What we know:
The chain has 2 domains: 1-42, no CATH class; 48-106, N-terminal domain of TfIIb. The protein is mainly β and 106 residues long. The strands form 2 sheets. A 4-stranded antiparallel beta sheet has the order 3-4-5-6, with no helix packed on it. A two-stranded antiparallel sheet has the order 1-2. The chain has strands spanning 11-14, 17-20, 61-62, 75-80, 90-95, 101-105. A hairpin with a 5-residue loop joins strand 5 and strand 6 (101-105). It has no helices and 6 strands.
Amino acid sequence: MQFCDDCGSMMKKQDGVMVCTGCGNRAEQAVDTEAFVSTEEQTGDELIETTEDANFEGKPTANDVTCDDCGHGEAWYTIKQTASADEPPTRFFKCKECGYRWREYN
């Protein structure tokens, strides 16, 4: 699975290159697309909230972050294991003030 460097959305194989499902960004580097499998649907356990209107309310909040967009110091977050099990998980944030989204690798 590959994620867009610009918006964080999942990328899918299209005409032999990886294309972002959110913003349309194309992968800059040549990627072995045969290693990727595209599916139309995912189960709830596999989904990562990435749409602008995704409901982050009710998720844990982080007070140790700063939004790069507005400078606010509090955000909702989710944690997903996006790499192999021996790698640390990725935290996906949504600013509580402006709604800006970003991710952080530990």
